[in-house]
């Protein structure tokens, strides 16, 4: 098992962001590897480069899939434009009447 896959499994099982040191400890435990600075540093680098992981600030890491998807820009622009068009239409109707 690759280290990043083990780290992914740890976070998935945890269900919430983890402190990076705890994440590394649990990942190394799953891999059956002793904690050595070079090994931990390599795993941390791999987590940084893997798009499945997301830095949450401080020393916390989570999974990118936990982030809610942001709504598209089209809906917002349509609402703004629609509001202006409705106002203009009402003004025109009042002027005609």
What does this protein structure show overall?
The protein is mainly α and 97 residues long. The protein has a domain at 3-66: Orthogonal Bundle (Arc Repressor Mutant, subunit A). The chain is 63% helix and 11% strand. It is elongated. It starts with a helix and ends with a helix.
Give a short overview:
The chain has 97 residues and is mainly α. Helix content is 63%, strand content 11%.
Walk me through the topology.
Elements: H1 3-14, E1 18-19, H2 20-31, H3 37-49, E2 53-57, E3 60-63, H4 73-96
Antiparallel strand pairs: 1-3, 2-3
Helix pairs in contact: 1-2
Jot down its keywords.
11% strand; mainly alpha; 63% helix; 97 residues; 3-stranded antiparallel sheet; 4 helices; Arc Repressor Mutant, subunit A; elongated
Compute the separation of the termini in Å: 75 Å
Percent of residues in helices comes to 55-70%
Structural class: mainly alpha
Number of helices: 4
Oligomer: single chain
Largest sheet: 3 strands, antiparallel
Number of strands: 3
Q: Using the 3D structure, state the CATH architecture of the domain at 3-66.
A: Orthogonal Bundle
Low-pLDDT sequence parts: 76-92
Q: Whole-number radius of gyration?
A: 24 Å
The largest sheet has its strands arranged as 1-3-2
Query: What is the CATH homologous superfamily assignment of the domain at 3-66?
Result: RNA polymerase, subunit delta, N-terminal domain
Q: Strand share of the residues?
A: 5-15%
The average pLDDT score comes to 83
Assigned CATH class of the domain at 3-66 = Mainly Alpha
Broad shape? elongated
């Amino acid at each position: 098992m690759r280290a990043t896959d083990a780290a992914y499994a740890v976070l998935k099982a945890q269900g919430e962001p983890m402190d990076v040191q705890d994440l590394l400890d649990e990942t190394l435990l799953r891999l059956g590897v002793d904690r050595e600075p070079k090994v931990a540093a390599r795993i941390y680098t791999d987590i940084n480069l893997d798009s499945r992981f997301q830095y949450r600030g401080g020393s916390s890491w989570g999974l990118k899939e936990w982030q809610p998807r942001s709504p598209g820009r089209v809906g917002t622009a349509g609402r703004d434009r629609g509001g202006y068009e409705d106002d203009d239409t009402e003004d025109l109707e009042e002027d005609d009447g």
